[in-house]
Amino acid sequence: MTKNVMSEVVTSENPQLVVLNGDLISGEATDGSDPGQYLHEVVKPLVDADILWASTYGNHDSDVNLDPTQDIYKHEIKYQNSLTSSMVSSPQAGITNYYLPVYPHKGSNQAPVLILWFFDSKGGHYPTNRGVNSLSGARGDWVDKEVNEWFINQNANLTAKYGRTIPSLAFYHIPAHAMLKYQKDHFNRRTTPGINGEVVVSQGSGDTDYSGQDSQFMRTLLDTPGLIATFSGHDHENDWCFKWNGTIADQNLTGNGIHMCYGRHTGYGGYGDALRGGRQILLDQTSMKKEIETWIRLEDGTTSAAVTLNSTYGQDQYGELATRMMRASNVASVNQEPALLPLVILWIFTWMCFHLRRA
Questions:
Q1: CA-CA 20 to 30 A from 99: which of 26, 88, 167, 232?
Q2: For the Calcineurin-like phosphoesterase domain, which residue ranges apply (predicted)?
Q3: Are 278 and 264 contacting, i.e. CB atoms less than 8 angstroms apart?
Q4: 269, containing H or E segment
């Protein structure tokens, strides 16, 4: 069923790039006997359609029977259409920390028009069945400080190399704490269309008490010139975007207008009865510094939560059609009070499709 969803969305949208934004494989449900086959089932619709993809890994991609390096990454990079990479070598850093430059259609000998940043927010458990490291127990479910420092340095190097700020987007599986604060204090379904069906489970909230584990990462996101929006997954019953202008007082962080978005639950594993689908992102290289079009393409061919991320997003009012909650039971209801997130997630992978409009 999951492969059918992917095929339907790809056929409807014909994207240039697909982002698999975490939880490709349900590690707790695997036996470690043939991890390459698990991954092949995930990417087969993209291979068949001959579409490029890039991944981040999520909390379910690492478990006692699933080593994300040996069992996923080393298999994924063998595919010709995979752009997934790993640029930070540290056991605590995770795997999928890297960036991809996007060049104008005239050729790659020019400066990039966009940088796509990918971060591993980790989570899950260290594998114990492969004997490749001495770490065990729960992995921290936040972007590591080494990755944060790498991000700062690499972004500065790119700015210096090309002599200007390059617009960028960022992807990571587990949402930042700012999304929870917005949902708790400011959520408005008229200005934030999409499903708001569960409490945000942010970085640092998994197997530990939250104590600002992602504060440094959030500060770096705010301090990164040209960063337009970030995209996460993790929470099956949320698929909205918000403009971060509010303050997280206990961390001395105030949003600067950056957009933070969810993808859409795509896989037919795990909890939730929302229709499956994927977030679409349309980029026009002549206007993307000012606005980005994004919407959800659903498995039944319809769309929802179509918004323009621009200077007035967060103030613009959207109608009932855009804010409805679409459920697999065909019962449409508007935003409800969030329910507690079930502690066990069997399988989710949220994904996004890119369309780069040429000048």
A1: 26
A2: 5-237
A3: yes
A4: none
Q: In whole angstroms, what is the distance from residue 241 CA to residue 189 CA?
A: 11
Q: Give, for 247, the enclosing helix (H) or strand (E).
A: strand 247-248
Q: Which residue, 273, 279, 281, 288, is CA-closest to 336?
A: 273
User: Tokens standing for 175?
Assistant: 């949402």
pLDDT of 104 reads: 81
* Per-residue confidence (pLDDT) for residue 134, from 0 to 100: 67
Mutual orientation of helices 177-185 and 215-222 as an angle, nearest 10°? 90
For the chain, the helix, strand and coil percentages under 3-state DSSP, each to the nearest 5: 25, 25, 50
Q: What does 315-336 look like in DSSP terms, one character per residue?
A: TS---HHHHPBPBTTS--B---
CATH number of the domain bearing residue 79? 3.60.21.10
Q: List C-alpha distances in Å: 64 to 4, 47, 111, 133.
A: 29, 29, 43, 12
Q: What's the CA gap between 59 and 77, in Å, rounded?
A: 20
The number of domains in the chain is 1
What is the domain range of residue 269?
2-357
DSSP 28: G
Of 156, 84, 148, 164, which is closest to residue 116 (Cα–Cα)? 84
Q: Where are the alpha helices (DSSP H) in the chain?
A: 2-13, 35-49, 74-76, 145-162, 177-185, 215-222, 320-323
Q: What is the mean pLDDT of residues 269-275?
A: 84
For the record, the structure tokens of 201 come out as 């489970």
Write down the residue that tokens 């010709």 correspond to.
80
Q: Residue 311: helix, strand or coil by DSSP?
A: coil
Q: What is residue 341's predicted lDDT score, i.e. its pLDDT?
A: 18
pTM for the whole structure: 0.89
Task: Give SS3 for 281.
Answer: strand
Residues 236-254 have a mean pLDDT of 93
* H/E run at residue 254: strand 253-254
Amino acid at 84: T
* Closest-CA residue to 88 (of 139, 134, 149): 149
- Report CA-CA distances (Å) from 70 to 49, 78, 136, 257: 26, 12, 16, 39
Residue 232 in contact with residue 260, Cβ under 8 Å? Answer: yes
One-letter amino acid of 293 = E
How many percent of the chain have pLDDT more than 90? 56
